Amino acid sequence: MERQGLDMKVSALVNDTVGTLAGGRYMDNDVVAAIILGTGTNAAYVEHANAIPKWTGLLPKSGNMVINTEWGSFKSDKLPLSEYDKALDFESLNPGEQIYEKLISGMYLGEIVRRILLKLAHDAALFGDVVPAKLEMPFV
Fold first, then answer.
1. Considering 46, 69, 92, which residue would you say is the last residue of a domain?
2. Domain that holds residue 49
3. 52 and 77 inside one domain
4. Are 132 and 123 in contact (CB under 8 A)?
5. Both 14 and 46 in a single domain?
6. Based on the domain organization, do 89 and 65 belong to the same domain?
7. Structural domain total, the chain
8. Rounded to whole angstroms, what are the CA distances from 52 to 31, 46, 65, 86, 112?
9. What is the tens place of the pLDDT at every residue in 19-54?
10. Taking the model in full, what pTM does it have?
11. Can you say whether residue 87 is alpha, beta or left, with left for phi > 0 and alpha for psi between -120 and 50 degrees?
């Protein structure tokens, strides 16, 4: 900001999901949740503060708190992982982490589709006798 000559001071930094929820509630106080489905994924929701067992501080005046779920990092044996999901996770920069995000977010869906098309190209001649070279390149 300084380099751009902007006379500003940062007084708050907000997670995109929490910011989306705040913006929604600003427009309509009945908004209770926000979901990000983009490069990554996350959700936030409004909860009654007295319903949060971990909260030991003073209750906010509104009686509500925002819960940022960071659900992209959710992992469970119950999530249906295909062979493509497992391979992508294993070869990723963070194996075993952000499993839900790898299943549904834009950062990974293209790579999952590329892997499926590559298998079909090899096993079922999807593109005839020639497998397109770019299909062999991860994350293209």
1. 69
2. 1-69
3. no
4. no
5. yes
6. no
7. 2
8. 19, 11, 9, 34, 37
9. 999 999 999 999 999 999 999 999 999 999 999 999
10. 0.80
11. alpha
